Structures
1.
Amino acid sequence: MESNKLFDKDELLKKFDGDEGFLGELIEVLINDVPEQLSGIQKAVDSRNSNDIERAAHKLKGAIANFEEKAAFEAALQLELMGRESRLDGVEEAYNTLVKEVECLVNALKEFVE
Amino acid sequence: MKVLIADDENITRRRLEKLLTDMGYEVVSCKDGLDAWDVIKSKNAPSLLILDWMMPGMDGVEICRKVRKLAREPYTFILLLTSKGKHDDFVKGMDAGADDYITKPFDQNELRVRLKAGKRIIELNEELLSVRDNFAKQASNDELTGLYNRHYMLEILRKEFARAQRYKTDLSCILLDLDCFKDVNDTFGHTFGDLVLREFSEELKQNARKTDIPIRYGGEEFMVLLPNTGIAGAQKLAEKIRTRCEKKKYVDGNNSTTVTVSIGIASLKQHQLTEGREIIACADKALYQSKAEGRNRITVYMKKPSWISEDNKISEDRDLGHLKESLSVILEKTKKSSIESLELLTRDLGGKEHKQHNHDVKRYINLIGETLALPPTIIETFKRSANFHDNFKVLLRKTLKAKNKVLNKEERNEIEDHPYMLSELIDMFDFFANEKSILQHHHENYDGSGYPDGLKESEIPLGARIFAMTDAIAAMLSGRLYKAKMSPEEMIAELADKAGTQFDPMLVSLFFDIIERQELFSVPAEVLEQTREKVCKAR
């Protein structure tokens, strides 16, 4: 499965001192927080508010970084940078990419929990 | 150790919470910068802070700046969380006052060691502060009693004196010396003596108000400095300490004794002192007097008339100003005893309420007077007026009550005349108003040629005419520096000669009658007769 390539399970567990229970708890938090965070970003994108885009994307990036620093992380970083530099051309596409990557990550993590 | 975590992102914050709790820290965590700042400002705030850079409300860098401005003790160690690869950010963060930084996502082990370093710095700082405080305490406190020592007292006095001058407030000094303390040491030994000193110090601490500063001045001598307090407040505290001390028993397993205390008091305003140290010198003189007058008492420092030297000899150099200053001291005593007599008279009539009312009024006068920075003598006058008013009122009400009737018109008038009645009563206390006119006019001459006002005949007060003549008679008979002593005969001739010019002729002939009737001097009857005729002519 493609999503499995997103992270190395052993590496991930190592980050949390092998505490599977705690990792599970954090994944739950992420799954719980993601919808609200994404809708926050979408709102900022819709209103083309660069400041809000930067802030909201930065926050989600921080959450993702606890698990991986690949596709989802990069997507969030891109949006953050676009916001910071007020480069709003193609911001919707960037947002769509982020939604897709986050979905992949969440799915992979869900699988991990199960 | 307490640590604050501030991060608005739930997962990172939860990770930090767990990690730090596992490490044994007491964790306080916040979701935004403003909440974090509230925690930092509060009492017992954490000394170790982990702050995210970007947060709603207030960002981590701004908090860093504010914390450094606050400059709390012990030191606050700040670890900033930054995003990876933002070199400029970390420079900015450290510049704002962060001690260390760690990039997100953080490595648990790296965070652990960085926190350890932070903890070490805080602990070192705490150790340093405690050593510093100990040194400060040793330098400022007396080991046996825990009170401030003499060395530190000088520093306090300097500060308090400056403050009193700046804000025009008062400062009083109570100097206390345990009576016959040497006997205590000789009889019971030094260990017991130390116990007395310690327990007495405790007594001082217990009785002093929050703002008073008790000090061990040396040996068995103690001091209490009372900022913003006048002589009356100082007296009150001194009396409290003295009576408590008198009753207190010092006891250990084998010995028991009581020790009284002698006290001297001085205050800046009362004595118009211009230097801090003067207050100690004044209180010391007053203390000496308490000892000399039999111990176990309080003396308020009184300035000695400047023409009376330390060994009680009157110096040659005295001018009117000095004389007035010292006579006013005598007058103050007289005024005080007048009021005390009056109070004695109303003591049983007035009851508790009257006393309380009078006490309150004087207290308010004192507060207002001190706030207005009025001279103590003026404040004293205001307070005495209240004394007179209240005591007279008690006396007057008593006479009305005795009539036991409903107020009629006459009585109402009497009440409306109240201020006049009071004024008439207080006139009675103006003891020397009449004497004043005699002194003022005793150099007037009967024919109007004298001074200062050139009064003549009956314009001159009778007392002044009598005094002028009797003073002259006594002077003539005893002789003065510039005039030879006269015989009674010569004196009589002189009186007759000046009757009608210098002296009142009526008084001269009256005096001649007295000489004759009382056989005051041995003068031949015919001499008196001749002179009498002369006087008659003058009249």
2.
Amino acid sequence: MAAGEPMVVVDDLHVVYRVFGAGGDRGTAATALLRILGRRTRGSIREVHAIRGVSFVAYRGDAVGLIGRNGSGKSTLLRAVAGLLPAEQGNVYTDGEAALLGVNAALLDDLTGERNVVLGCLAMGMTKKETKEKYPSIVEFSGVGDFVDLPMKAYSSGMGSRLRFAIAASKSQDILLVDEALATGDAEFRVKSHARIEELRQEAGTVFLVAHNLEEVEQTCNRVIWLERGKIVTQGENVVEIIDRYIAASGGAPVERDPVTGKRIHARVPLKA
Amino acid sequence: MSNDRRLSAPGRLADEEHGAEDAGVLTAYMPDEPLAEFALAHGLRVAAERPPIGRYLKSLWLRGHFIMAFATARNIAMYTEARLGQLWQVLTPLLNAGVYFLVFGELLHISRGIPNYLDFLVTGVFVFNFTSRAFITTSTVITESLPLIRALRFPRAALPLAYVIIELEQMLLSIVVLAVILVLTGEPITWYWLLVIPALLLQTIFCVGCGLATARLGANVNDFSQLLPFLTRTWLYVSGVLFQITTLDISRKYVALLQINPAAIYITLMREALLTTQRESEPGAKPYNAHLCHVWATLGKGAKGTLQEQLDSGYCHVITNPDHYWFYGIAWAVLALVVGFYFFWRAEAQYGRG
């Protein structure tokens, strides 16, 4: 039995997406009529079983890295922990509020950055006064500058994600979920956001990090969960070892490490994501 | 290693072939008891749980500023592409009224018997527009706001609520336009005009309730928002927007049903508040009306039809008692709000599944 206070308990979680308009049925009026006449269910609804029976417990102070290939269910798992996606089976239990920082966390594209900041803050439950106080620091952190007056659809993808990150990171939460939020920013922004995540980690109980940059996971996380096709391949505190195995399984070149410290010898080893 | 719930030593692990079969076995820090019990024992809550109604209402109340800010922002965004901008908020209802007046008043002469047809029509069009717009816009609110829903946690009922507030703002502007038209056409300003406030309040509550319901329907069934314009169009033609329901040549029973349908009720309440001719044509509004009705009923007794049929015609065309209009207005508002809110709240954890 491990000591510590559990913050997130995921118990045999299954998440299923229902996708309309998938292939098979061409979606013409004729096929729709046949479907209705034949009392057949709509063939073009496809179920995507994104998470298939994942269980783990994360404790206060943990920084958990999620690794795995594209489509292995990392982002879905984060959304489920954030309570933004309902579970098909099983449950996610959390202690306190969870905040999700992600590249996909688009807000309202046809509104200005300024309005998005205000709306985002208010939606997270800040008061009008708190919003006013935080506003300058959010805009400053995002570094969008004068663009704050323009609709967000006019932003470059990097600017958009910087602003979104700045909004979501403005409030300290009990559980922090970071989904590739740092991948799109430039070098300067990465440094800033790393510092902010570290800060939030001190304040927050638990941090989850999804990143294809494995070095980032190695540096930030004390635990790692390796997902493959919606299932956990392995998880544990031996971060370096699991990452090495993951790299080997993906066919990448092994990382050279210092035998004593376990640190990477060549910081710039090309990694296969 | 299968019975070992704790992490294996690194050395052993390295020898093993990795694979999905490890899942659930090689788990660090797993408690011995079932996870659900473990979680609840430590005071954790289900993440995607639907909050109880009381807590939900409270968090909705706390998001008041968000709702207002969202409504304002949407309203502005809606018109940013147009050169005339928010002037369209006033132009749209005016053009609407103009088209209906031209087609139904001047070309088709539906105005038969209705005094001051322009005022009658414009009031009806504006009030009905509020109801129908509230239905149509809220049906897509969940799909339109999917990015927001998937990014942040807040009570989702805030979204349809904000959309109804947008339509209410639009309606308030329409009422100003309406007041100008009424004054220009010679309608006297009276204390009755104050009844606009409770009438509009009831209609707004009704729209919020219905908006919540359509928001959930539109979120799950994509076909629903396709169908909705046709439903509201039908509703328009049976709600006495363009003509007086009592003049319809159908069974009195159906007339009564049409009269108490919510769209018609709120239109009637508004017309009675604003238009003198409408107030005075109600049975009993003028003493001579009631008197003539009485005489007519006495004279016609036994002549043809039942007493009730005669009471229902001529000077006493009281099918739905005018005193009951307000009662129906309140009843529809409360019913829509309670049912709509409950219906929306039931699926709170499901929105955003996509």
